[in-house]
Design brief:
heterodimer, A: 187 residues, alpha+beta, 5-stranded mixed beta sheet, 5 strands, 45% helix, 16% strand, B: 350 residues, 6-stranded mixed beta sheet, 5-stranded antiparallel beta sheet, 9 helices
Chain lengths: 187, 350
């Protein structure tokens, strides 16, 4: 996985898409990802004819396509930046309160440490987002692009589910334990 | 010769996280010595030439318990002869600075031991209190379960000694129920339990302070449930009243300067209000113990929550990695496993 570089301001205007429902959000992301993951080789003059991840270097506008941001409400969004031979998908997950915030942050740190195992995970998220994927041509050559799209969408669903289930677990544990604790004084 | 044993004790909570007031170290070590004495007494009765001074192996068992309490059980050495005494054992206890209440704690320990122990005028080195237990007397109790009962009572030394201040306030509630000035029991740095005797009730306030701000966030959700549950369940209407606030409650307005670091609680303030029904003689000890172990109780459950979250994260990551593995295309250069029409398998290398 190429180490992510801080991207300088890009000249492209972002296409914004507002989704209106849960399913609309994931469907919109899926469509955009299918386009974004259709990668082809673009040998770079700056790197001896080898493919370099243009999306990370951001200095060859001919190789870049317009970024797409898909939002759900004010909190969640998905930024898809694509180039000819590489693509970046960044996610901002819902963090409705303090607890969701610490759970999300812990989860992202946990993932960042395992970026190597994931291959397509960027070790550090893009500025303003919680987690980023970096998909290179070598990835779409060794892995099925459709399966990668499925994976990213599955990932988005699962993160939301895990965080809300953990939040529920804390309050249901609190309820069970508080009941047992207070009961001790009544027996 | 047996070398002194050192055992580290984590909390051993029961299913719902409640902690037993009986110390395992005390029960095990004292119990074992009593058993040895009982056996020796039986053997001596059988042997004609019994050597009554046969000494037993020396004991130097120590343990750390939750919330920085130390326990020790040691052989007693006779001052004049310098030889170990077999009929007595020293049980010593040490806790956080300020938690030991001097004479009140000693009185409680005396009451606990009854005829089977004395509080030493000065405790053994590094301890707050030493109880010299007459194991010889305990060994003379005929009934095994009665013997066990005495040993388990002595196992409640921590409850007696470090619960003494709280116990006094709750006893006064049972007897008179008059208002009094704010009192406090240092528990650990940043964890000071405040006690406010009021008219016909006693309010106990726990400022919740966490070194890790993330724990405070979890505590927030967790502790809010105490209020919810008390309010919502009619079966708990006889339980102590509970409230939970972000800022110090009114009861703490008279808290002196030295305790004010306890007033920057990032986890909020939990208050319990006890009434006479909670401190009647048959309930008093349980109320004291459950109250004094509240901090340990909460930190256990927060730790458990965090461990659970970590195991969930690990499990999810493993699932995702498996999905990604399935996304991999077959390597065109690798040896291909193939099957013939008749079912035989072979490997074709390209």
């Amino acid at each position: 996985v190429a180490r992510g570089r801080r991207n300088p301001a890009v000249g492209h205007a972002r296409a914004r898409v507002m989704a209106t429902s849960h399913q609309g959000y994931y469907d919109a992301v899926r469509d955009a990802l299918v386009h974004a993951f259709a990668l082809s080789s673009h040998p770079s003059r700056k790197m001896d004819g080898k493919d370099r991840p243009e999306i990370e270097y951001q200095d060859a506008p001919a190789t870049l396509r317009a970024p797409v941001e898909i939002k759900r409400g004010d909190e969640e969004s998905c930024l898809i930046e694509s180039a000819v031979n590489s693509a970046r998908v960044s996610l901002k997950v819902r963090q409705a309160d303090d607890l969701e915030e610490i759970l999300a942050r812990q989860f992202m740190r946990f993932l960042g440490r395992r970026a190597d195992a994931f291959e397509i995970l960027r070790r550090v998220p893009v500025d303003g987002y919680d987690v980023s994927f970096l998909v290179l041509l070598s990835h779409t050559e060794s892995m099925d692009a459709g399966a990668l799209v499925d994976f990213v969408v599955q990932f988005m669903r699962d993160i939301d589910k895990e965080i809300s289930e953990q939040k529920l677990s804390v309050s249901s544990r609190g309820r069970a334990v508080a009941t047992a604790f207070l009961e001790q004084f009544t027996k | 010769e047996r070398t002194p044993r050192r055992r580290a004790f984590a909390m051993t909570p029961q299913a719902n996280g409640s902690i037993s007031p009986v110390s395992t170290l005390i029960v095990d070590v004292v119990g074992r010595r009593v058993d040895e004495l009982v056996r020796a007494a039986q053997e001596e009765r059988q042997r004609a030439d019994a050597d009554a001074d046969a000494s037993l192996a020396p004991i130097g068992a120590t343990a750390m318990e939750f919330d920085d309490v130390r326990l020790g059980v040691h052989t007693v050495v006779d001052d004049t002869t310098g030889k170990p005494v077999r009929d007595a054992l020293d049980v010593s206890i040490a806790g956080v600075r300020g938690g030991f209440d001097g004479e009140t704690s000693a009185t409680a320990a005396r009451a606990l031991a009854g005829a089977y122990g004395d509080v030493r005028p000065t405790p053994n080195a590094t301890y707050d209190l030493t109880l010299r237990v007459r194991v010889g007397e305990i060994a003379k109790i005929e009934d095994a379960s009665a013997r066990r009962g005495v040993i388990e009572d002595i196992g409640r030394l921590r409850l007696a000694v470090y619960g003494s201040k709280l116990r006094e306030h709750l006893r006064r509630l049972a007897e008179s129920g008059t208002e009094g000035p704010l009192d406090w029991v240092p528990h650990r740095p940043g964890e000071t339990m405040f006690i406010k005797p009021q008219h016909e009730q006693v309010t106990v306030v726990f400022p919740m302070r966490f070194a890790d701000a993330r724990d405070a966030v979890i505590a927030n959700t967790f502790l809010a449930q105490f209020v919810e549950v008390r309010r919502g369940q009619s079966a708990l209407s006889t339980a102590p009243a509970v409230s939970y606030h972000k800022s110090p409650p009114l009861e703490l307005k008279d808290a002196p300067a030295g305790t004010t670091n306890a007033l920057n609680a990032n986890g909020g303030y939990v208050s319990f209000v006890f009434f006479k029904r909670h401190v009647v003689p048959e309930r008093l000890e349980a109320t004291v113990w459950n109250t004094m172990t509240f901090y340990a109780f909460v930190s256990y459950h927060i730790k458990y929550s965090k461990a659970y979250w970590h195991s969930r994260m690990r499990r999810k990551v493993d699932e995702w990695l498996m999905i990604l593995k399935r996304a991999k295309k077959a390597d065109p250069n690798a040896a291909k496993k193939m099957t013939t029409a008749s079912g035989r398998t072979f490997v074709r290398t390209t």
